Amino acid sequence: MKVEIWSDYVCPFCYLGKRRFEAALRQFEHRDSVEVVYRSFELDPHARRDGNPGVHEMLAAKYGMSREQAVANTDNLTRQAKALGLEYHIERAILTNTFDAHRLTHYAATQGKRSEMTERLLKAHFTDSLHLGRVETLADLAAEVGLDRAAALRALQEGRFADEVREDEREAARLGVRGVPFYVVNRKYAVSGAQPSEVFLRALRQAWEDERPPVVLGDAAEGAACTDDGCAVPGKAELAP
């Protein structure tokens, strides 16, 4: 069973949703049979790498609220994060373009480190206040999860994995994804937003039941049935189709 998760590294709800989904997965009876794949999504593809406003100023301008209201909103997010064991320092977060960070995750996937890289990038932004737009910083983070720093830096400098990021974004558009986090289970069920763990668990269990073969009741030898070879009635001769 596959769960695909579209998210961005500067999205506070993506980190919250990640923890809630992980809590649901730990409760799921068949968790060892679930493949989790993180997909790329840029909340602001046109964001500059440097020179962006602070988080509170950005929120105030984008949503037409006062700076005090923006601070109150981020304080609420910080409390939600703390309840999940996460440490947010949103007031220090550096807004930047995340395209290179997504390219790095695709590189990490080729080395079997996609999940570890995703977690480290989220923590780097929300807890450590690191600049995810700088390739040197990204290379350092790659090394922290066990990747070869020089190879990761070379991949970033050469512009590799751009097509993979764009394909994830095109797929999101085809699926109608307008915001993140967005979860797709077996390409049949979707969960939008950082929902409570119970919602994720319900989706996992429903998808699992849907792909199980039906349970046959009764003795097949005693039931009348038709196949491509004809129709067999118990106790009587076979009827040709």
Brief characterization of the structure:
With 241 residues, this protein is of the alpha+beta class.
Overview of this protein structure:
The chain has 9 helices and 6 strands, in the order βαβαααααααββαββ. It is globular. It has a single domain, classed as Glutaredoxin. It has 241 residues and is α+β, with helices and mostly antiparallel strands. The longest helix has 17 residues, at 67-83. Helix content is 48%, strand content 11%.
List the helices and strands and how they pair.
Layout: E1 2-7, H1 12-27, E2 35-40, H2 55-63, H3 67-83, H4 99-110, H5 114-126, H6 135-144, H7 149-157, H8 162-175, E3 182-185, E4 189-192, H9 197-211, E5 225-227, E6 230-232
Parallel strand pairs: 1-2
Antiparallel strand pairs: 1-3, 3-4, 5-6
Oligomer classification: single chain
CATH topology: Glutaredoxin
Give the beta-strand count. Answer: 6
Strand content: 5-15%
**The CATH class:** Alpha Beta
- End-to-end distance: 39 Å
The strand order across the widest sheet is 2-1-3-4
Give structural attributes.
241 residues, alpha+beta, Glutaredoxin, 4-stranded mixed sheet, two-stranded antiparallel sheet, 9 helices, 6 strands, 48% helix
